[in-house]
Amino acid sequence: MTVDSLRPPAESGSPAPFYRAVGKEVETFRAAARRGSPVLLKGPTGCGKTRFVEAMAHEFGRELITVAGHEDMTSADLVGRFLLKGGETVWADGPLTRAVREGAICYLDEIVEARQDTTVVIHPLADHRRELPIDRLGITLSAAPGFQLVVSYNPGYQSILKSLKESTRQRFVAITLGFPTADVETDVVAREAGIDESTARSLVALGAAIRGLDGSALNEVASTRILILAGGLVAEGLGLRDAVQSAVVEVLSDDPDVIRALGELADAVLPRP
Amino acid sequence: MTVDSLRPPAESGSPAPFYRAVGKEVETFRAAARRGSPVLLKGPTGCGKTRFVEAMAHEFGRELITVAGHEDMTSADLVGRFLLKGGETVWADGPLTRAVREGAICYLDEIVEARQDTTVVIHPLADHRRELPIDRLGITLSAAPGFQLVVSYNPGYQSILKSLKESTRQRFVAITLGFPTADVETDVVAREAGIDESTARSLVALGAAIRGLDGSALNEVASTRILILAGGLVAEGLGLRDAVQSAVVEVLSDDPDVIRALGELADAVLPRP
Amino acid sequence: MTVDSLRPPAESGSPAPFYRAVGKEVETFRAAARRGSPVLLKGPTGCGKTRFVEAMAHEFGRELITVAGHEDMTSADLVGRFLLKGGETVWADGPLTRAVREGAICYLDEIVEARQDTTVVIHPLADHRRELPIDRLGITLSAAPGFQLVVSYNPGYQSILKSLKESTRQRFVAITLGFPTADVETDVVAREAGIDESTARSLVALGAAIRGLDGSALNEVASTRILILAGGLVAEGLGLRDAVQSAVVEVLSDDPDVIRALGELADAVLPRP
Amino acid sequence: MTVDSLRPPAESGSPAPFYRAVGKEVETFRAAARRGSPVLLKGPTGCGKTRFVEAMAHEFGRELITVAGHEDMTSADLVGRFLLKGGETVWADGPLTRAVREGAICYLDEIVEARQDTTVVIHPLADHRRELPIDRLGITLSAAPGFQLVVSYNPGYQSILKSLKESTRQRFVAITLGFPTADVETDVVAREAGIDESTARSLVALGAAIRGLDGSALNEVASTRILILAGGLVAEGLGLRDAVQSAVVEVLSDDPDVIRALGELADAVLPRP
Amino acid sequence: MTVDSLRPPAESGSPAPFYRAVGKEVETFRAAARRGSPVLLKGPTGCGKTRFVEAMAHEFGRELITVAGHEDMTSADLVGRFLLKGGETVWADGPLTRAVREGAICYLDEIVEARQDTTVVIHPLADHRRELPIDRLGITLSAAPGFQLVVSYNPGYQSILKSLKESTRQRFVAITLGFPTADVETDVVAREAGIDESTARSLVALGAAIRGLDGSALNEVASTRILILAGGLVAEGLGLRDAVQSAVVEVLSDDPDVIRALGELADAVLPRP
Amino acid sequence: MTVDSLRPPAESGSPAPFYRAVGKEVETFRAAARRGSPVLLKGPTGCGKTRFVEAMAHEFGRELITVAGHEDMTSADLVGRFLLKGGETVWADGPLTRAVREGAICYLDEIVEARQDTTVVIHPLADHRRELPIDRLGITLSAAPGFQLVVSYNPGYQSILKSLKESTRQRFVAITLGFPTADVETDVVAREAGIDESTARSLVALGAAIRGLDGSALNEVASTRILILAGGLVAEGLGLRDAVQSAVVEVLSDDPDVIRALGELADAVLPRP
């Protein structure tokens, strides 16, 4: 497995967001970005999808416009709507329309949660047409150069009732992100939480042990994110075991039996204070 | 099976869209178009329905107005609505109304997804009346010469709950599109992706192998569209096997077992680098 | 079975719509119309319900106002609503209200699809009161002489969840329309499609053969309408078998087995070219 | 069983509506009306509930305001709403509020179909308070003398999901209406349809025969209303058997077997022409 | 069981509402009222919950603001909303907000029928905070002294789907009301209906007999309210048995068998005329 | 188990809210607050979650903005909306937006009841971004220093249909609150209700006995809150057993058998008067 670090940004003075590559996600994203192909990011909660998109946007020097999908989101939330100003209705661009006009990367986070009209509205943007018809205005916008669609998706979540339509999926290049190797994850946790490498390694070991459990009792495994949250509590002076109890054990389950079992696992994996 | 290429456009200077006919779809569409009969395009995702309509509109020198159906679409999205301007409500034609006034082809993509009032509104347009009643305006428009309805439909998708009403279906001439022959598909993939014929042939061979699988594990087979997407990544320098992984394998399934099986199929079908 | 042709219109110079009576529908409609009794037209898709109402309206010299029912239709779509004009709300009559004021025939096509408030709103119009209360205006209109309600209904369609309420049904005189005899249907298809009698007879023979099938595989039988559509493609130069494939076989089903069986039936029934 | 005829109206010059009492409905209504108690009319479709209320309103010299309940009716449809006029919102009384102000009889037809807020809104009007709180205006109206609530209800219809709440029912005096005796019904049919007594008696005999059938095949029995409709077609010159076919047989069912059985019953009961 | 009568109102000249206490409801309400604790009234339909609250409000000299809950009620119906006046949106207090400002008793009748947002909105009013946050105005009101919440609830009604949330219930002091003793109920019926004690005693005996039935056939038992309604018809001259038929028997059921059984029970319990 | 009392507030003159710590909730909250990490409070109804947040806000000298979640709450209720003022639409911040601007603690009570868009809207606030995108304004706010999200959650309540999404949960530090020890709870009840320690101890003993029951018959155990409510009735002069009946027994169940059993438990546990 190759581990790339990102190239320094060519055109911007701001520091590159911290991202450590896990597989071939960087090369694949670069190829898709050069072609303008839309990208579908697949991966579990808290594995770094948002960070990865921030890093790629920085590398390409493009603005990043992020929209969090939810089940009440409609196409108007993406495209725009009329507002009443001074007795006139004036049009207000939605985030997708702004990205289309400005050539930005539009990142639709967990788009599958949204109502279907939000996925259909991206169809003509996601094929050879690269167009956004805005029916309410009676116009069709051509996407500016640099515009790219990125959508995220958590396969562990999706039910049969809520999955991307095939006619939507087959317009995307899919990139699967997973959790990093132990060394990379230790590096990330120590840096993000502001703790020493040894403590970070303990947290990563606990994360790996939880990920190795038969998953049936947990809805989802321990993410890098919750290891960083636990590390942060330690950095503020809380004991490691207490931090793990609040940021890992109690977060992963409400079931007293599961909480007890996770606690015993933490006792076994973490160093004695 | 006859393979037609399209006649050059009679009246327009713009280049004809690239379309390679697969069966008798071109003759049938021409007969229906001359008569003004509505057309129902049936076929799987990514087989070229949109391209076909673009090519036919070019041949007949008619404007093409495309509307993507979705489950929240209402008849007002097709017909139009009142907007508030300067304290007055002013009427704004919807895309269907514009097509009726201008004699354009109105292409309703996946109309079956829309709410039923959107299909009922086309009934008087789709029989001998060729009329669009606009209740909100209290008027009835007669369709201009050249107006034609085209709707698309993916039979593999439709559930019992969501299918076209019989009283709607029996107003249309149905044209079924499938995937092209290997030679035609190789030609299309090479041209669209910008890759050499040999690589395109490998991708088409993989597509055929996937289409030959017992389909129970896949929601839908590999479309020409995803073969073009994979080819595009190759054209940007990604390795063929990596491109196939992102644009074909990971797109077709989220199931780890299916992904592994598709990967092995790709290893077997694609040439060693 | 008596076959009436319509009497020439008494007061209008426009040609009478082409309609060939099948049973006693004409006498019954005349009696109901003279009395002002509402009429419920029952019959399958494409058997000519709309044509029949057009012909009767022409005979009685009354305006015909048609409204297509759909599941999102509300009583406001029938009765009217307030619109904002120049800072004032102004009332806009709906099609039912216009018919009540003008003494027209109001034809509610597939009214059972509409929401229940649309059927309740016609109750006082459909009994001895002949009144339309418009709650939003606080007024009650008496129907002008000549006003008549006609609603259509496809019994083959209706589920238990969607059927006319008994308190609605028992206000109507029911007229059942079926498909015409072979001679009449041949006459209709030849005239409407613009083809010779022999080809029309072949299409009618195919329609009869399909109607004679055990219906379990088809949602609905072949209507006169699709025979006319097939004939129209022939009139434009398409071969008879190809026209039947597009306008009949592919329209009646999406199931490959049913499509093959219908195709074999067409091969057997139609003359060899 | 006592049969009352209504007393002549005390104060009005308009003719009393034609109503023939069937049981004790008149005395009971009078007692409830004198006390101002709300009345719940129970009975099948077309048995004369509306006529009965019209007659009672006439007898007491009170205005009758009728509202037809439906499943989309809200309390605002009864109580009133704000409309925009000249840039101001102005309040428009609903029919219930008008009845409360004017001391009229408010007849809510099939109120059980309405949404529950419409039944709750009548609670304070239907007990010792006789008040209508209008939350939108922040006021509470006391009902004018003479105000009385009458609601109708068809017990044969109601499902468990849609029935009156007990806390609503127990505020009403219930009056059950049924079909009249043969002599009374013959009188009603002859008078309303404008036919001779002998034909009316035949129709009534058919109605009685249908009401005597094991009801499992019919949603509801033949009402007096459809006998009058059939008689009306006869008065316009249609044959008795044809009139019965359209106004009775085809109205009562869509099931071919039931239609045939009803037709045979009609052949047996009606006199040969 | 102690039977209190209410103390004369301290500060008001209007007569105290007639209420006869059944258990300890009066002492308990007084203790809760002095403390400002919210009260949950439990009891069957028509047992006098509204009367009881009226009497307590009178005793404490507080205004009583009553709101009837229904399933379409939203928090805006309680708290208030913006209305458009003269081109401005102006805020209109809802009944709960008025009670909070004025220190009134706010009686939410059958609040469990309302949408959940209406119960959540009362949470900060129903604990130590005694606050009403009005998000639309961006303010939080402190309840004026004397403000008290009273909600009613019919345990016999509630399904699992519709019950008060535990986090709501545990903010209330619960007072259960039942039917009064025979003597008290006779007194109430005679006084309210305006009939002699002997007739009232007969009605109360019938009510007790019905309440003693195995309840499975009835949705709810006979309330004091319907006994009063029956008495009222007698006071207007209707026979006792006929009054019972309309106000009790036909109200309690639509089932012919149950109606017959209740009628036989009435024949047995009531005195012969 | 350590029992902390809160440190006196550093910067404010108002008295600290009364809160007695039960476990490590105070240290954990302090660590999370210093870091700005969002906190998820888990615990049963009435155990003191609101009090705890009030105490922590006081300690840190931050404003506390509380929002009660309910199932009709939308993201606009949190973020803000446009209102019409003087013919202009003006933006009104919602409570979350105010907290973000002012650096307050935003406490979302029972957020899981809200619609999913309300939880998604907090995602960018609950990770390293600390941003609130307001799509309607086209802006993104950075949270002011001191801003902290706190959400509460009752694990005993949640169904599979209504639980926090994993991608939401894993952004929070979870703190579980339970009921305090008997000594602490006695102290709390005596102080809050204004009763002597002996009576408070009796109520706490009853609460413990109820919590020790096999829970299947109760939806939730007796909270500290209802013990305080019972104590309050005693402080107003009601007998202890009567106060327990209204504030504990009748509140915990509507089932006559359960009410009787709880009453017998109260008879056994409480001292004889």
UniProtKB/TrEMBL annotation, chains A, B, C, D, E, F:
**UniProt entry tagged with the keyword Plastid:** no
- Which parts of the chain span the membrane according to its record? none
Pfam families reported for this sequence: AAA_5, CbbQ_C
Domain CbbQ/NirQ/NorQ C-terminal per the UniProt entry, residue ranges: 185-269
Task: Quote one Gene Ontology molecular function term.
Answer: ATP binding
Q: Which UniProt keywords apply?
A: ATP-binding, Nucleotide-binding
ATPase dynein-related AAA domain sequence ranges = 38-172
List, alphabetically, the InterPro entries matched. ATPase_dyneun-rel_AAA, CbbQ/NirQ/NorQ/GpvN, CbbQ_C, P-loop_NTPase
The reply on keyword ATP-binding is yes
Task: Classify the source by domain of life.
Answer: Bacteria
Task: Give the matching PANTHER family.
Answer: DENITRIFICATION REGULATORY PROTEIN NIRQ, MOXR FAMILY PROTEIN
The Swiss-Prot or TrEMBL record describes its family as follows: Belongs to the CbbQ/NirQ/NorQ/GpvN family.
Protein name as catalogued: CbbQ/NirQ/NorQ/GpvN family protein
- The protein's organism comes out as Mycolicibacterium sediminis
The gene is cbbQ
